[in-house]
């Protein structure tokens, strides 16, 4: 199985950007996903969660927000909070697989 992101079952999405934030002194980390033109928007199904899936299984992100610019839809932002090192390690394994699938590269600022 490949690493995929879906808002609606069966429709794979491609993130336009993913930012990971956190403190070196705390296990708490935050991943912020942005999607400029999600394919699920073309369906009549309300986007309420983001599902991350790979060989290890899946996990859901429920902090999903539509973004608007000048009253026009401009994308979707999803925020995934990781409270433990174990959650973060699992997330990073997913991200490595997802980056391989999509050609996305990791970078640090």
Shape: globular
Largest sheet: 4 strands, antiparallel
Average pLDDT across residues?
A: 91
The class by helix and strand makeup works out as: alpha+beta
Rounded to an integer in angstroms, the radius of gyration calculated over CA atoms is 14 Å
Low-confidence stretches: none
One letter per element, helices H and strands E, the order comes to EEEEEEEEH
Sheet with the most strands: spatial strand order = 2-1-5-6
How widely separated are the two ends?
A: 31 Å
Helix content range of the residues, please? 10-25%
The share of residues in extended strands comes to: 35-45%
Kindly state the number of beta strands.
Answer: 8
Number of helices: 1
Keywords summarizing the entry:
single chain; 109 residues; 8 strands; 1 helix; alpha+beta; four-stranded antiparallel β-sheet
Account of the protein in words:
This protein is an alpha+beta fold and 109 residues long. Helix content is 17%, strand content 45%. The chain is built from 1 helix and 8 strands, in the order ββββββββα. The longest helix is centred in the last third of the chain and has 18 residues. The chain is globular. The chain starts with a strand and ends in a 7-residue tail after the last helix.
How would you summarize the topology of this molecule?
Elements: E1 4-8, E2 11-13, E3 17-22, E4 29-35, E5 50-54, E6 57-61, E7 63-69, E8 72-82, H1 85-102
Antiparallel strand pairs: 1-2, 1-5, 3-4, 4-8, 5-6, 7-8
How would you briefly describe this protein structure?
With 109 residues, the chain is an alpha+beta fold. The chain has one helix at residues 85-102, and strands at residues 4-8, 11-13, 17-22, 29-35, 50-54, 57-61, 63-69, 72-82.
